[in-house]
Amino acid sequence: MLQSKSFVRKTKQGKVLKVVREHYLRDDIYCGASICNVCDSSAARLSSSASPILVVDTNVVLHQIDLLENPAIDNVVVLSVVLDEVKNKNLSVYNRIRALCSNNARKFFVFSNEHHKDTYVKAMTGESPNDRNDRAIRVATSWYQRHLGGSTRVLLITNDRENKRKATEEGISAETVESYVKSLGQPSLLDLVVQPNSGDVDMVEVEELRPSKRKVIYIEHKPMSEITAGLHRGIYHQGKLRVNRYNPFEAYVGSESIGDEILIHGRGNMNRAFDGDVVAVELLPEDQWQEGKSRSIVDDEDDEDEDVRLVPGSADDAPRNTNVENGAVGAANPVTGRPSGRVVGIIKRNWHSYCGSLEPMPMPAADGGIAHALFVSKDRRIPKIRIQTRQLGNLLDKRIIVAVDSWDCLSRYPSGHYVVLIENDINSRPFSSQVLACLPPLPWTLSADDLANPNRQDLRQVRVFSVDPPGCKDIDDALHCTPLPNGNFEVGVHIADVTNFVYPGTPLDDEASQRGTSVYLVERRIDMLPKPLTEDICSLRSDVERLAFSVIWEMTPDADIISTRYTKSVIKSCAALSYVEAQARMDDSRLMDPLTTDLRNMNTLAKIMRLRRIERGALTLASAEVKFQIDTETHDPLDIGMYQIREANQMVEEFMLAANVSVAEKILKHFPMCSLLRRHPSPTKEMLEPLLRTTAAIGLDLDTASSKALADSLDRAVGNDPYFNKLIRILATRCMTQAVYFCSGDLSPPEFHHYGLAAPLYTHFTSPIRRYADVIVHRLLAAALGIDKLPPIFQDRPQLTGIADNLNYRHRNAQMAGRASVELHTVIYFRKRPTDTEARIVKIRSNGFIVFVPKYGIEGPVYLIPRGEKGGDWLVDEEHQRVTKADAGISYSILQAVKIHMEVVERQPNRPKLELTLI
After folding, report:
1. Which of 246, 433, 639, 746 has its CB surrounded by the most CB atoms within 10 Å?
2. Claim to verify: residue 550 and residue 450 sit in the same structural domain
3. Which positions make up the signal peptide (predicted)?
C-alpha cells in the first residue's frame, strides 16, 4: 500500500520547494509476541509470561533509560516513531535504547508502526508533530490490545498527563512509570525513576529542607528563541563553561565574540550550569567586573559556606565579594578588571553520570521509607545533587553513581537519581551468554580457509616480535624490521585482526560498542571484549599462529618511507618481550643475535622518526604517571613511584603513531565523509595563560604561537633542578585540550589537525583488543582494500557521530576510573605510612599552594591558613608568582622545593583523603 507524504522546505538560496515522498505501508509486519497466533513467532522477542507487554512513549525512553536498562524491566515494545524522536533529541540515549533492542538477552522489540497499514496515522490539520506522535503511540498500543485479543495485558507507559487521559478515554490501559514500578514489588527500582516534570502525571512538589521557606533562588533560563536573538544582537555571548578545579564557585567561559574569557563568580551567576555546559552569558556592568581568577584554594568542606545570589529584585541581590565565592582575600568591593558575567541560558547540557558518595540530609524519612540525601561527587567541580532513596543505609558508606534529572530555579541543588553501585559509569558486569556465544570454540587454531584466503598474506616466516609492559596478556601489536638487499628496511606493524571474530550487529559487537574501551586499574583490567579473545584468540603471543592486520613500509636507513602496503596476514611471533627485556637486549653490546639486531635497527629508525616529528612541531609532554607494586595475595600496594619511560617504550610508540597516520590517510582517501578520525584541537589563549604566567614569573619565555614554537621553548626550559623541565612539561600538559574521536563528514579538513602530534591526519588502528574505535577503523580499512563490504552503519552519519560521542565519553570515564584507582591505592598505601618528603610548588594561592611530589607522582593542596579560618596576612604577588607573609619575612614562590608531611586523615565518615602539610 502506497501513501504520499508532502512537505515544503527552504533551500540555502531561499527558494521554497514542495517535496513529495512515497510512504509504503505493509500488512506483514509482525508484532514480536511469542503468544501471537497470527504472526510468525520464529523471531519473537516478547515473552508469553504473565508480565504485561509495555509500550513506552518517547519521554519515558529519553528520561528513564537507566530504569529501562535494568533487567527487571522487560517485554517492552519500542515503536519506530519513538525511536525516530529519540534519535533527533538525544543520540546518546538513542544508542543505548538501540543496544537494548539488539541485545538477545533482553526482551525489547522494535515495531515499525509507521509502516504498518493498521497503525500508521496522518497528521490532522492544526495538530502539532508532538500531538501527532502521541496519537500514533496510542493507536499502536490499541492495535496491540486488539491484535493479541486479550491473551496478555498491553500497557502504555507514559508520564504525560494529557496522553494518559486520552488513552484512558480511548479504552487503553495506561500507567505512569512510578506506578508501574511500584507494582513490581522491588522498592530498590524506584531509586532509578526520574522525578516527573511539572507537565507530567502525579507531579509532586519536592520540597527543600524547610518547605515553607522555598523561594526563587536562581533566575529563570531564557528560552532558546530569546538566546538566539540575543547572540545575534551581541547582547549574549556563547561558550563552554569551565569550572575552576580548585574553587568550584568560580568558572570561566571562553568567548570568541569578545575575544576573552568571561569570569563567572559564584553559583548564583553560574545559574545551574554544570562544568562543560555550552551556555549563553550576559556581561555584568563594568563596576561589577572582578580583577581576575580566584587566588585561594577552597577546601572540600567549604561548600556550605557558599551562598547563591537570589534573583534580581530580591533583598539579597546586592553584589557580594565573599572570600569563598570570589576567592579574593580582604577585598571589600569589586574592582574593574576582566569581563565578568552571569549565565542566562543553557544551550547544550553536559550532564552525565557522576561518581561519589552520599551524606544524609537532616530531615526525617518520608512515607514508604524514602530518605532524602545529598550526593557529593568526587569531582569537586560538580555541585551536590539531591536524591531520594529507599536504600540509604546500604549506600551511605559506598561509592555510587548518580545521574542528574533536573535543576529547578527554586532549588539550591540539582535533583538526580541513584543509578548503580559502580564507579565512573564503567560496565564491569560479566559478559552475557549471548555475547559469549559469539566466540569461536576453544582451543582456537588457524584453519585451512584462513591460509587459503587470497586477501591474507602468510607472514609466518617473518621474524615478528612484540614489546609490551611486563605481564601483558592482551597483546594487540607486534613488529618486524628486516634488512632488504638494496640497503633499505622492510618494517611492519602487525595488529590483532579482531574484526575477523567480531562481526557488525552481533551481541558481541553491540557490547563492545557500548563499553567502548578496556579500563586499566591498578590491580585489574575491565575488558571491552571477553578474555578468550583478549588473552588467547586475538592476543599476538609468542610461538603461536595468529591472524593480523598489517601495515608494511619500505624505509630507507634515514627512515624515509618509499612505499606502504596494507594486508590481512598470518603471523607467528618469535618473542613477547617486556620493555625492560627489549631495552636490556639493545643495551647489551655482547648480544648480536638477529632479534636484537632487529630491535637496534628499529630503534635507530624510531629515533630519526621521533626527531623528524619533533622538528615538525610535535610536543613531548609529561604526566604524573604512578606505578604500584601490588601484593599478589592482599592486592594492597607494597610500593609506589613514578612510571619510568625507556627508549624501548618510545620505539614502539613511534611505529604505532606511524601506522595510525598511514591508516588515517588510506581510509580518508576512500571514505571522505564517514571515516572515524582523532583530532586534538589547539589550546586557546585562555588555556595557556596559567602556564605563561608561571613561566614568566621565573624568567622563562615560552613561545606558544604554534606547537613547534612551544616544543622548542620547552626544550630550552632547563635549570639546575633535575625535575625542572619535567615540571614545566607537566604544567604544559594541563593546558591542553582533550583529543577526541569524530566523523570526518562532520568537520572541515583544517579541523582534523592533531596539535600534539603536529599531524594533519590521525586515527586509532593499533589497539582493537581494547578500543572500539580501532575496530571501526579496521572495518573501514578492510572496505578500502576491497576485502569486506562497508557495514550499513557507515551510511548513517548521525549514528556515526553518536558512536564517536560515546567513545569519547567512555574514553574519558576510563581515564577517570584509572585515576580514581590510583587515588584509592595511594590512600591505602599511605594510611599506615605517614611520610615526610620533598615537593615542588606548581600553583600559588592566597591561602596556600598546590604541590607536586616527584617521588610519588602525587599532587595536592598545602594550606598556609588553618582550616576554618578566613583571610590571613599572606599576600599574593601574581606577577612573580609568590605568596609572602611580610611581618615574618617568609615567602614561597612557584617551583620552589618544600618539605611536606603526607598523612591519611578521615575528617568525614567513609571519606579518607591524603592530607599534605608543610614542615
Report:
1. 246
2. yes
3. none
